[in-house]
Amino acid sequence: MATVDYDSSADPEMDLTSDEELEREAEGFKEQGNVYYVKKDYAEAFNFYTKAIDLCPKNASYYGNRAATLMMLSRYREALEDSQQAVRLDDTFMKGHMREGKCHLLLGNAMAATRCFQKVQELEPESSQVQQELKNAESILEFERLAEISFEKRDFRMVVFCMDRALESASACHRFKVLKAECLALLGRYPEAQSVASDILRMDSTNGDALYVRGLCLYYEDCIDKAVQFFVQALRMAPDHEKARLACRNAKALKAKKEEGNKAFKEGSFEEAYDLYSEALTIDPNNIKTNAKLYCNRATVGSKLNKLEQAIEDCTKAIKLDETYIKAYLRRAQCYMDTEQYEEAVRDYEKVYQTEKTKEHKNLLKNAQLELKKSKRKDYYKVLGVDKNATEDEIKKAYRKRALMHHPDRHSGASAEVQKEEEKKFKEVGEAFTVLSDPKKKSRYDSGHDLEDDDMNMDFDANNIFKAFFGGPGGFSFEGNSSSGPGNFFFQFG
């Protein structure tokens, strides 16, 4: 009699029993996952939901539960995949659609989120939660639209504002964070921009946009070599990243042109250096810190070329770009000193000394204050029309010329107003000569002291000074004449 092999796997009743056992075991894992979820032990909850899925991979609720757990762990992309799998298995699974929409929203895809929430609305028309989520999605789309317009207008503050509002609902959106970071960099808020970009790179080290922003911050902080490294890395991760390509090109061009200008300056080719710095300034108007240095460099060249007013203007532009730029204040202050704008020089040196209280800065300030004080007195050198380094003979010759020019008797026929003005100038000439021809008085005057405060005899009689200077054989002789006009002198040529 033939023996028949019995295949137990073909027994339908045993297959049914096996499936039921798997489902019961899976339900057990799901219940354990629920317990851990309530305890907020999301890592353990995730493990048990995963075990349930492994046993019953076609149960939509298991994927939905694991998606909820992943959302609590901030693993939104994985949560999105589980939510999508859940609704593929059961298109009527309302919680699955809601979680998919929430994941899309958190990741910044408001359009996809809207479609999911509309599906929820079909399944549960009275849901107040879905109404709010639809409003959130609509708000994000509006902030995106406004941010795009503002970026084109270079209103970077508005872009930051829009992205902050959008991130309230889309907290996991790297795209919004990168745009915010880029605008923070363009506003000169580099530490904030670096912080945002670094947070993204900690989660995704290959994010080309975040690498670009890191490079942009370094570029704008004048760390050009390091910036280029980040731009190159960004292009390696995203070869079509046009912003990184442009920034890399600008960085290299700016560095090269600046170095050419520095080389020309060191070689004494000031005109060439001036032109090179001017060319460098046209490369990237957004690079505030480097452009501030370029303006200051050009101001230094300008002062060498005696373009002092242009140099002052360049320093002012540098300071406008970077209010903390001490070198620009010092350069402008020196130009103010050279053009005898002492009040402005004092103001700049005060700013410098308040920032950096060094002995050198203190001395510069004191010197500017002294020159300011001196400038408010009569400038006896200007009165005589001589240089501050004039010799004794030059001072005498100048006095002779000016005294004869302004002597009242020479203007006796002029109007009363002219006579009064010439008499005043005649007295000033005598006063200037008295001080500058006396070594002691001249020394005190040159050092900025008020001669009247030093108990020095500062009583001037211009006529007596004139008579003493011109009196004697071969000179001019004067005779009193009450009708001869102011000063009661008249010329009698011998």
UniProtKB/TrEMBL annotation:
Its main location: cytoplasm. Residues 8-24 have a biased composition (Acidic residues). It is found in: Cytoplasm, Cytoskeleton; Nucleus. TPR repeats lie at residues 26-59, 208-241, 254-287, 292-325, 326-359. Acts as a co-chaperone regulating the molecular chaperones HSP70 and HSP90 in folding of steroid receptors, such as the glucocorticoid receptor and the progesterone receptor. Proposed to act as a recycling chaperone by facilitating the return of chaperone substrates to early stages of chaperoning if further folding is required. In vitro, induces ATP-independent dissociation of HSP90 but not of HSP70 from the chaperone-substrate complexes. Recruits NR1I3 to the cytoplasm. This is DnaJ homolog subfamily C member 7. Keywords: Acetylation, Chaperone, Cytoplasm, Cytoskeleton, Nucleus, Phosphoprotein, Repeat, TPR repeat. GO terms for cellular component: cytoskeleton; nucleus. Residues 1-25 are annotated as: Disordered. PROSITE patterns: DNAJ_2, TPR. Coiled coil: none annotated.
